[in-house]
Amino acid sequence: MTKSTPFSQPASDLTRAPGCDLSATATATAVASGSMDLERHFRELQERSLRLARYEAMMQPVSAPSPTHEAGPLTGVPVVVKDNIDVAGLPTTGGTPSLTDNLAERHAPLVERLVHAGAVVVGKNIMHELALGGTSNNPTYGYPKNPWDRNRMCGGSSGGTAAAVALGLAPVGIGTDTGGSVRMPAALCGLYGFRPSPDRYPKGGMLSLTPTRDTAGPVTRTMVDLLLVDSVLAARPLIAGHGAAQDMRIGLSPCHSQDLHPDVAEKHAQERATLIRHGVTFVDVDIDDIIHDAGQIATAILWGEAANSLESYLGSRTDLTLQDLVRKVASPDVRHLLVTGLGSVMPDQYQAALRIRQRLRDELRRRLNELGVQAIMFPTVPVVAPAMDHDKTLELNGKTVPTFSTLIRHSDLGGILGLPGISVPVGTGSRSALPVGMEFSSAPGTDEELLALVATIVPHISEATPPSGLPGLEPFMG
To answer: Active site residue: 136, 181, 331, 441, which one?
Structure first.
């Protein structure tokens, strides 16, 4: 793995790469120029999906495209979608048994934007049931396996989406992020993952527990693709980098460097040193109190909204009651959360949590502005991908720690406060040989500045591996 990857080559060169390695940008360019047989390309992806079905990324194998497609910036680009987002003609199950037959009549507005831009939705992805977990272990539909090591998890709740993109079943995936559910699986699978500010992309057509915190976001194998997909979803001009990292100011917070897996700590130090050599100035930013206070209101916001959000969704789609849905939940961890969480937050507690959230958003913005800091850098996840049988606890630096709270320890702030954040793949650990992601997060509403900053520094720190180069990737039994 090197910083010079096939993903940085011109689209004309990429068309000679294996079909599974093609970026969205290269695919769209090749289709527009007439140099790609799109039907053959989709057949190859379909065959690959069947061969790798036991990685359990897809609800079903990749489907072939319809004979016609829109012309646009994503013409002919295969896209996979997490199964809590509506795709017309396909069920939106939310990963839960009671919604198996919940057929979507129309695309979610953000899916409509992708299709209008020429993208082809080729399937839905397995997810943690109702997006209430960090492993994507789903007893009804499957347990997505990490493409780097099939005995390890992809993270969640968008684990199937990340697995599908890393496996080369599509160059673009759309997941959802509450407390890290796009960024964390992206990091554990060696991908880019973007959580936008909640109002950047169109809402609707999504099974959501907490509208204040939930947002859809793209997962890609290249930064160029992430920028392209963002421009389509946001209906805004394509963002470009600044050209040079000189004079950028990036914050480092104390708590983000504590109790890390050795591989993650090593990568964090390496990327900091690399960026310093390229002219970046790092500034100490103490936001530990903001992180602590945000953690105190996280569940109040979730459970203050979940019942109303779920009842509204069910009432518009099915004859199910909320009680019916909870009774049929298959995942013990999700059922426990619903039984103990629903109805646990009073309206005054919820409103108080929202007021605290706004105060913390304002305070974070003030501190960053005061120091002239454009973004904060930290490891997306404190650990590398845990073993699949460690979905409750894992070992970290000689201690047994809870898996879920450890996985979201760094990313949850962005979900609570509605911050934009981008996870960048920075290579694999020297001990584990597993991917590490570095997140860049910024003040509320600064998505475009953050995207431009990350686009500028990615050439210096990103290390990406194409699907054809994944170690040990092969069909398997058992």
So the answer is: 181
From the candidates 23, 49, 82, 442, which is the catalytic residue? 82
Q: Pairing mode, if any, of strands 145-146 and 149-153?
A: antiparallel
181 is catalytic: yes
Residue 392 annotated to the active site? no
CB-based contact 104:88 (threshold 8 Å): yes
Query: Is residue 205 within 8 Å of residue 238, measured between CB atoms?
Result: no
Long-range CB pairs of 296-301, under 8 A, 24+ apart, other chains included: 296/356, 297/353, 297/356, 297/357, 297/416, 298/179, 298/412, 298/415, 298/416, 299/341, 299/345, 300/345, 300/349, 300/350, 300/352, 300/353, 301/210, 301/212, 301/213, 301/350, 301/353, 301/354, 301/357, 301/416
Catalytic annotation on 3? no
Instruction: Report whether 294 contacts 301 (CB < 8 A).
Output: no
Q: Which of 49, 63, 136, 157 is catalytic?
A: 157
Highest CATH level, class, for 6-290+350-469 = alpha beta
| pTM of the predicted structure, to 2 decimals | 0.95
- The structure tokens listed for 431 are 């001990």
Q: What is the 3-state secondary structure (H, E, C) of 305-369?
A: HHHHHHHHHHHHHCCCCHHHHHHHCCCHHHHHHHHHHCCCCCHHHHHHHHHHHHHHHHHHHHHHH
Position 454, amino acid: V
Give the whole-angstrom CA distance, residue 461 versus residue 95. Answer: 35
Task: Write down the domain spans for the chain.
Answer: 6-290+350-469
- The single-letter DSSP state of residue 248 is -
Q: How far is the C-alpha of 218 from the C-alpha of 110, rounded, in Å?
A: 11
Check if the beta carbon of residue 450 is closer than 8 Å to that of residue 422.
Answer: yes
Mean pLDDT by 10 residues, the chain (478 residues): 39 62 96 92 95 96 73 95 97 98 97 96 97 98 98 98 98 98 98 97 97 98 98 97 92 96 98 98 97 98 98 96 98 98 98 98 98 98 98 97 98 98 98 98 98 98 94 66
